[in-house]
Description:
By secondary structure, the chain is mostly beta strands. It has helices spanning 77-81, 112-121, 125-128; strands spanning 11-13, 19-21, 24-28, 31-35, 51-52, 62-63, 68-72, 89-93, 107-109, 132-135, 139-140, 149-152, 155-164, 167-168, 187-191, 195-207, 224-225, 228-232, 241-244, 247-253, 265-266, 269-272.
Amino acid sequence: MKRLNGINKNSIKTKLMVYLMAVVLLFSGVGITLLTNNFGSNGNDSNAAEITYDNVATDLGKFADGTPYMFTDPTKVDDFRAKKISTDTTIIRVDSTAAHGSQKNPYVIANLADWNKFATMSATWSYTVGKYFVLANDLDFSGVEFHPAQSFSGTFYGMNHTVSNINVSAWKDYQGADYKNIGYGLFCYTGYGVTITDVANENFYFSGMRNNGTTAYANRCAPTGGIIGHFRVDQPTAINSYILNCHTNGEINFNRTDYTVCTPAGGIVGQYG
């Protein structure tokens, strides 16, 4: 099992040689708080968990009944930081009778094929609202075309796993068509109500970003981040959103001379607002 230790190596750079530290963020309606967390070694080894599929070609996986999984719990963060409790994590045991996609029976992403299914689901905003997704293994995209999650407003528990070696110079959507949107990242854009925890994006290289043809972005590339490209505040589904215990290490290369204004970029979130 991988273990993420703080944020001591999280950095990101652009061709302008501007270095931005990748921090862990908690978003709320009233502000932003910097957070970090380390997982313990218990209750989080999903590599040995049984995963089944109703339809291997189209469906995301399911954990077997009773399987435990763990995540950083936003409802515990304040008490943990105040030293009122010993951990800010929660363990859920799967109830296979619960609706697939619920917290008790989450969608499971276990391999690259599953990530592409997830990218397909995220092409429609409403498909992810209120749904729960768990990353069950590390994903290595070496030599593999990466398709981002285009829009997301659900809950994604990274389970302390790493997505690594994403190298993108020509962004494609889940169908392999040219991708042109308002943000670039693991998650291109998200809105209020999103929760993303406990995932690292390691050794990534993002280039080839462009604008989406709208007036607002006519003179710059769309915002780009190691986790989220554009955290949109015009897509509210709840009061608070959380990005907890997320880590990045990679490069964003705009390498453009045809845009006249700066383009937002960040180690975790490219643009908030």
